[in-house]
Specification:
539 residues, mainly alpha, Na+/H+ antiporter like fold, Rossmann fold, 6-stranded parallel β-sheet, 6 strands, 5% strand
Length: 539
């Protein structure tokens, strides 16, 4: 590997191996995250073969942290949190307290000082928002009561952990047992909170007006490329300014940037445009985490690792008991078992604690090992949750995929600006229509408009089967994502050879791609606009 190409080496080998191992994990019904972590282990300094540049990888991982937390902020809904505040706020705080206490006890057994056990316990007390959110989306639980409780719980945990990230550096000396002047410590904490307050105030007062205004202006230019660049500039720029000028962590800065945009009409588009890069750098983040894991800990400290895993799994049990105590029914409370794992915030906190000297270096290996093992176990727990918590016929929460009774009907995939117009025209013509849409909160809107609908991703075969694609006569694929549209067209054509399929494309290559997979007609926006304009040309 040439001296000038460590970045290329990380991107090619790290992402390539993450892709291979992530695909294998997906094949075995495990989160791809497992594959990403194992890819990092494979290219890390503790295993033979190619060793990636750790320093450069960690810098790329910082971008992953920024974009991950920006995404969390974009999905943060104060309204949803307030709806479950009586459960999520006390429950999440008490669960973190219980797990932190268990971590302190384990640290005492390992021979660590109180402060190190405290930070160790905090690292074990935060479930992965990424893992839970993706699991909820895959099982169409985001818009259920269980999903709202789980996400509210996670948001409270994330906010509390962000607070820990802010106060830990000023308290590091005290936690290490160093002689600390109380007045100096108070001044340091006061300055830290003052900077945080100023930053938060500027974001809420100025940022809430300036950032959406900039994005609205760019959106009106009609340039998708500039809009995507504006979104990424906001995420990275706010995180950088937060760290450079206010001493606030880049994670908190990015979260604030996302939260400011969450209330904007452009939040959904911002999330969509930042998603590809967010996913790519998130993979690099998890690869970098895997690089820090020494697999020899499985041999050197098997008992300590087993205790750590038991504490993490105990977090799910503690959350379940707390939910039941707070009045949540047994069926909904089982979602607590999905919280029995740790992820991105645990890694960030462990890295900070190790850097400050308030967490022993060996603890990071235990945390990373426990994360990998708990995420491996979590799908089994989630399967148990969804099976046991499946709604009964008389329950107020209907089964997400009730097969339609429609036959010889039209199926519309996607209810955005294009799909809504198609639905209006078809309904005006008396065509029986079924809409398939996976957007958050779309069920109520579709029901209000009187449309038969299924909430789910049409790429998944059970969703198309529930839409009775075999008995349909028309399929309109109105989503803009060319790759997903192709998968839908291919599956629909295989299920119904006589189906008339009309799809949407953005580029010339997309037209040929969709036609080749079985579409009867592919409409490209620019071409149709040109044809419509030519109708007005003089004879």
């Amino acid at each position: 590997m040439g001296e000038a190409s460590p970045l290329i080496g990380i991107l090619v080998i790290g992402l390539g191996l993450a892709f291979v191992l992530g695909t294998i994990a997906q094949r075995f019904k495990l989160p791809p995250l497992i594959g990403y972590l194992l890819a990092g282990v494979a290219v890390g300094p503790f295993t033979p073969g190619f060793v990636a540049d750790t320093g450069l990888t960690l810098q790329l991982a910082d971008i992953g942290v920024i974009l991950l937390m920006f995404g969390v902020g974009l999905h943060f809904s104060p309204k949803d949190l307030l709806a479950v505040k009586a459960i999520a706020i006390p429950g999440a705080m008490l669960q973190m307290l219980v797990i932190t206490g268990l971590g302190v006890a384990a640290g005492y057994g390992f021979g660590w000082p109180l402060a190190q056990g405290l930070v160790f316990g905090l690292c074990l007390s935060v479930a992965s928002t990424v893992v839970v959110m993706r699991a909820l989306q895959d099982r169409r639980l985001m818009e259920t009561e269980r999903g709202h409780i789980a996400m509210g719980w996670l948001v409270v945990q994330d906010l509390l952990t962000v607070l820990v990230l802010v106060v830990l550096p000023p308290l590091a000396g005290l936690l290490k047992g160093e002689a600390v002047n109380i007045a100096d410590l108070s001044a340091s904490l006061g300055l830290t909170f003052a900077k945080l307050a100023v930053f938060a105030g500027l974001m809420l007062v100025i940022g809430r007006r300036v950032i959406p205004a900039i994005l609205h202006y760019i959106a009106h230019t009609g340039s998708r490329e500039l809009f995507r660049l504006a979104v990424l500039s906001v995420a990275l720029g706010v995180a950088f300014v937060a760290a450079a000028l206010f001493g606030v962590s880049i994670a908190l800065g990015a979260f604030f940037a996302g939260m400011i945009l969450a209330g904007s009409p452009l939040s959904q588009r911002a999330a969509e445009e930042s998603l590809p890069l967010r996913d790519a750098f998130a993979v690099l983040f998890f690869v970098s985490v895997g690089m820090l894991f020494d697999p020899h800990v499985l041999v050197r400290q098997p008992v300590a690792l087993a205790v750590t895993v038991l504490i993490v799994l105990g977090g799910g049990v503690a959350a379940y008991l707390l939910m039941r105590f707070l009045g949540v029914g047994a069926r909904n409370a089982r979602i607590a078992l999905s919280l029995a794992q740790i992820g991105e915030f645990s890694f960030i906190l462990a890295d900070l604690g190790t850097g400050l000297g308030v967490l022993p270096p060996g603890a990071r290996g235990l945390i990373l090992g426990a994360s990998i093992l708990s995420i491996l176990i979590n799908p089994l727990l989630f399967a148990f949750v969804t099976r046991k918590a499946a709604p009964k016929a008389a329950a107020p929460e209907p089964a997400p995929l009730t097969p339609t009774l429609l036959n010889h009907h039209a199926v519309l995939v996607g209810y955005g600006r294009v799909g809504e117009r198609i639905a209006q025209s078809l309904r005006g013509g008396g065509v029986e229509l079924l809409v398939v849409e996976e957007g958050v909160g779309m069920g109520e809107k579709l029901a209000a408009h009187g449309h038969h609908h299924i909430i789910g991703n049409a790429v998944q075969e059970p969703v198309l089967r529930a839409a009775n694609i075999a008995g349909a006569r028309l399929l309109y694929v109105a989503i803009p994502e060319n790759f997903e549209a192709g998968q839908i067209v291919q599956q629909a054509r295989r299920a119904n050879p006589d189906l008339v399929i009309v799809a949407r494309a953005h580029f010339d290559a997309g037209v040929g791609h969709l036609m080749g997979l079985g579409a009867n007609r592919v409409v490209m926006g620019e071409e149709e606009i040109a044809n419509a304009m030519l109708h007005f040309a003089p004879e």
